[in-house]
């Protein structure tokens, strides 16, 4: 089903990995890190999803407990490596 929203609709593994379930975020803003772990800034969740979609990147939750929550952009191959090797 491609109507799930939240970006990355073409990646079915999102449903299996809670770190990729952006809908879990209760805050209206997030702290976004780029693929090199550099701070992008504090932005809206929808802006983070837009940046990920426009750059064909995955968006993963690093910390839901942060104020605001922390997200990071990943290339799909890099995310799989981090997920397997953590």
TrEMBL record:
<dbReference type="InterPro" id="IPR001288">
    <property type="entry name" value="Translation_initiation_fac_3"/>
</dbReference>
<protein>
    <recommendedName>
        <fullName>Translation initiation factor 3 N-terminal domain-containing protein</fullName>
    </recommendedName>
</protein>
<feature type="domain" description="Translation initiation factor 3 N-terminal">
    <location>
        <begin position="23"/>
        <end position="81"/>
    </location>
</feature>
<dbReference type="GO" id="GO:0043022">
    <property type="term" value="F:ribosome binding"/>
</dbReference>
<dbReference type="InterPro" id="IPR036787">
    <property type="entry name" value="T_IF-3_N_sf"/>
</dbReference>
<dbReference type="Pfam" id="PF05198">
    <property type="entry name" value="IF3_N"/>
</dbReference>
<dbReference type="InterPro" id="IPR019814">
    <property type="entry name" value="Translation_initiation_fac_3_N"/>
</dbReference>
<dbReference type="GO" id="GO:0003743">
    <property type="term" value="F:translation initiation factor activity"/>
</dbReference>
<feature type="region of interest" description="Disordered">
    <location>
        <begin position="1"/>
        <end position="21"/>
    </location>
</feature>
<dbReference type="GO" id="GO:0032790">
    <property type="term" value="P:ribosome disassembly"/>
</dbReference>
<feature type="compositionally biased region" description="Basic and acidic residues">
    <location>
        <begin position="1"/>
        <end position="14"/>
    </location>
</feature>
């Amino acid at each position: 089903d491609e109507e799930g929203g939240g970006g990355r609709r073409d990646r079915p593994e999102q449903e299996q990995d809670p770190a990729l379930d952006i809908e879990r975020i209760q805050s209206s803003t997030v702290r976004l890190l780029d693929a090199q772990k550099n701070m992008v800034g504090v932005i809206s969740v929808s802006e983070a999803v837009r940046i990920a979609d426009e750059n064909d990147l995955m968006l993963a939750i690093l910390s839901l407990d942060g104020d605001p929550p922390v997200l990071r952009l990943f290339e799909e191959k890099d995310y799989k490596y981090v997920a397997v090797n953590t």
